[in-house]
Amino acid sequence: MALFLCFFFFFLISYASACDRCVHQSKAAYFSKAPALSSGACGYGSLAIGFNGGHLAAGVPSLFKDGAGCGACFQIRCKNTTLCNSKGTRVILTDLNYHNKTDFVLSSRAFKAMANNGSDREILKHGILDVEYKRVPCVYKNQNLAVRVEESSQKPNYLAIQLLYQGGQTEIVSMDVAKVGSSSWNFMNRKSSAVWESSRVPGGALQFRFVVTSGYDGKWIWAKSVLPADWKTGVVYDTGVQITDIAQEGCFPCDEGNWK
């Protein structure tokens, strides 16, 4: 009983000190060529060019999270007040940053967005900047979570899909598929980053359910009718659901300073 009370008390303290947007200190560099990020480890390909006005980023493994971090949104600003504005830039994670000198490598468009007016060229000359950043919710106006059927999918049994437009501030850590109207679910495996696959796909129209984590807990989200019976590769299908949950991080003290 005493052990349980100690654990419960520790949990309450941890939860009370949690932030929804912890501020982190690091460095950021940039890619001079945009395709380097659009063709990155998340596998979004040419779709990434349309994400967030081309403000894209590669993140270190702790942010990439074996692909669960694909599509996560971050607000980043540089700490050089002479060169940079106070707002910074908002980016979407589309790639894995293999270099250990910076937490992020940004698209040049996102990198320049941190500059004061007239400082675009000067900020690019620096190459690497000291930054602070926080994770922020992704907001897709009038856009539900969607799935894209990958070209590698083969009827009748093998299906590979890519998740797009995940809102909120969460990660999808598990995914199941079933025929519409059935309670017989088959689990899907994360094939690579934002792509999930299964070789046990039933015939007919398909539904999906997801386990979404939001910090200290998680929940099921059910997309009841997503793929028609005659689903086709290369097509993006609307799930009809939106994810808006905000994750909690265990940072202490919980102080965003002048980040608003």
UniProtKB/TrEMBL annotation:
Localization per record: Secreted
Top-level taxon in the UniProt lineage: Eukaryota
TM segment ranges: none
Main location: secreted
Residues spanning the signal sequence: 1-18
Keywords linked to the UniProt accession: Secreted, Signal
Domain Expansin-like CBD: 157-239
GO CC terms of this entry: extracellular region; plant-type cell wall; plasmodesma
Keyword Cytoplasm attached: no
One GO BP annotation of this record: anatomical structure morphogenesis
Family: Belongs to the expansin family.
PANTHER family hit by this protein: EXPANSIN-B3 (PTHR31692), EXPANSIN-LIKE A1-RELATED (PTHR31692:SF4)
Protein name: Expansin-like A2
Source organism (scientific name): Rubroshorea leprosula
